[in-house]
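Lab notebook, bench 4. The sequencing result for the construct came back, and we need a structural model before the next group meeting so we can plan mutations. Quick request posted to the team channel:

Model the 3D structure of this chain.
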Amino acid sequence: IFLVYCVFLQVSVIHAQDQTRFVKKHYFPYQQTEYRNILVTDSCYWIMGWATDTIYPYYWTAITCKVSWSGDLLKTKTLIYNWTTFGWPEGIHCFENKLYTAYKDRQDSVRIVVYDISKDSMYQYFSWGKVNPKSKYIYEHVFCGNKNGDQYIATTSEGDTLLKNDSGIQLIKLDKDKKPIFVKQYHIKDRYVDLRGIKEMKNGDVFILGDIRLPNYQKYNDDSYRGYALLVKSSGDSLTTIICDQFSDGFRDILQTNDNSL
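Done. Here's the predicted structure in token form:
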């Protein structure tokens, strides 16, 4: 179990037997920070997050941290943008000695930021705007990749018209050179969807995870939330949806066992 907190970097590692291995705190000179993604390797932990500068106008900064197995901070790399409205990163993907994560740029696009481990360099690699031109905003995004270097970006937006209380999910699949393999949209009628995660299965199908709820004007409390999973085929076509009223906080991750059970 890994716990990562804001303001400073606190890394806690807890064994399956509920025994704490270590708790370490590392302070950074930023006004605010948030670390949302962690990757465990054979030699270290990689953590990717964001921060804002301490000087007005508080420019946004992407952060990558390398932490040893004992919890010591080994390396920090930052990428500063002259923008103030970046969103947080979602997902972390390692391919060919590079770390990838996806940040929401303001309200209308998603940017993939890369940390090249061998060159110790951090840079923006890819940017994608709104899939639905009728939508005003990108509300949420999730990101993942596979061993072939393919990557998925799922986003949510309002429906085709502001007069309806519908939602839209957009899914982009990129190859290792960041060329689109497919771009798909899925319409959810009379419901709002909050994204929580995305995972590719062994056969190439993809689960988009989150929660689904009634429009705000009808009902806005925990009773209206349901766990939601959209299963998409490797071609990008929608296969099925799963809605479960026992998970009001939504689905966040899914594991596939060796016998293909979920």
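The longest strand covers residues 32-40.
Will bring this to the meeting.
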